[in-house]
Fold Motility quorum-sensing regulator MqsR.
Amino acid sequence: MVSNERFASACRDTPSYALSRVIELAKTGRVRYAGSRVQRDVENLAYRPEDVHRCLASLNACHFHRSEQYEPSGPWFDVYHVRYAGPADAVDELYVKLKLGPNCLVVVLASFHRER
């Protein structure tokens, strides 16, 4: 039986992924963009891949905002709000949404943009 009801996204107040692993992967450049929108948002900020990696490696627990799930059996995404001195010598208030990929070998970046 197919349901026509939409799943209301679920949220929780604890991270789904070990921040230490996210930082470790970011420091070694093991970051993948989840789609062209993330790529475009990064380019609009004039961030190079190294800037994104350094930003992710600078995250700490106080930046954690929430964890979100968009489908009942789908992955969880951790959301961080972080102030980061970007390449334009301005401090950006960033919204960062990520998950760890299969076997925790890569950070999958789902959102990376200024807070709206």
